[in-house]
Automatic annotation (TrEMBL):
SUPFAM superfamilies reported in the protein's UniProt record: RmlC-like cupins
Gene3D superfamilies: Jelly Rolls
Keywords for this protein: Metal-binding
Segment forming the signal sequence: none
Superkingdom in the source lineage: Bacteria
MF (Gene Ontology): metal ion binding
Keyword rRNA-binding assigned: no
Organism from which the protein derives: Tunturiibacter gelidiferens
Protein name, entry field: Cupin domain-containing protein
Annotated InterPro entries: Cupin_2, GPI/OXD, RmlC-like_jellyroll, RmlC_Cupin_sf
Length: 292
């Protein structure tokens, strides 16, 4: 089975293996990786939280990591520059970049995180390196979008979503998905070599019809209700649920009810320039004209 539907459970947060000596008040719920699904070979997806007073020491990773802030505030250092991150903010940590995190202003924080290439099993090799502490600056502010030195961080606002229409993105343009609005956050243009992360919203009556991909996808639902079908199995999906589909797993997602449906979507490997989607609807005439 190359799909998963997982509801966030508060009692599933735990300290990652190997982090105990290098973090305080830092925990996560792993939704998808090699330990949760044998079919997941490209990505790891998790919800991470930082308690008040918590921190993650400076570390270097042998993979890319993107995250989207859901709740609270935290301070993040990346390659010597520090930023205060809040809801709607997102960032990309590149392979080999040094980064650290800590709670700010006595607040905790929670964010959605996607990692690619998928972290290695411990028996295979090491891919996280804690490289020692550093001195946080006395004053940390939100990132300045007008400063040309600000890179790999951004902020999403509702006004950035275009009016709903047909799907248009790298690798596909057509009516396989309708009444859809998208805002790309992390992609090649942003600096990633491995992943995409973007906001999707379907208006009432909208959705993406049955299709497959040559890459893995995840969808973390943040508002509205969805009728989903993954590999022939039907689900009613509510906010706080993570859905994942593997390569070739046929799926469809539709808005349920009158409230717009919104989720944070990720993809890895990055979609090809062409044939990123194979919608059943677009091959219907060929199937009818040339049946087996």
């Amino acid at each position: 089975m190359a799909h998963a539907v997982i509801k966030l459970e508060e009692n599933n947060f735990s300290i990652p293996e190997g982090y105990g000596r290098h973090a305080k008040g830092y925990s996560r719920v792993p939704f998808i990786d090699h330990s949760t699904s044998a079919a997941a070979v490209h990505m790891a997806h998790q919800i991470v939280q930082l308690e008040p007073g918590g921190y993650l020491e400076q570390c270097v990773l042998a993979y890319e990591k993107s995250f989207y802030m859901l709740e609270g505030e935290m301070d993040m250092m990346m390659d010597g520059r520090s930023y205060r991150m809040g809801p709607g903010d997102y960032a990309l940590v590149l392979v080999g970049s040094a980064h650290a995190m800590r709670s700010s202003s006595g607040n905790g924080a929670r964010w959605m995180e996607m990692i690619a290439p998928q972290p290695l099993a411990k028996a295979v090799g090491q891919d996280t390196f804690f490289v020692g502490d550093f001195d946080w600056p006395e004053k940390i502010e939100r990132f300045d979008k007008g400063d040309a030195r600000t890179r790999f961080v951004g902020h999403f606002e509702d006004a950035q979503l275009p009016p709903p229409g047909n799907l248009q993105m790298d690798g596909y343009t057509g009516d396989g998905a309708r009444l859809i609005s998208q805002k790309m956050m992390v992609d090649r243009n942003f600096g990633s070599a491995h992943m995409t992360m973007f906001v999707v919203e379907f208006a009432e009556g909208g959705g993406g019809s049955h299709h497959t991909h040559p890459f893995e996808e995840s969808y973390y639902f943040v508002s509205g209700m969805a009728d989903c079908e993954f590999e022939g199995k039907k689900y009613i999906v509510e906010p706080g649920t993570l859905c994942w589909t593997g390569v070739g797993a046929k799926h469809a997602i539709y808005t349920r009810g009158s409230e717009p449906l919104r989720f944070i979507e990720t993809q890895t490997p990055q979609p090809p320039a062409r044939q990123a989607f194979r919608f059943d609807s677009e091959w219907r005439i060929m199937r009818e004209r040339y049946p087996d």
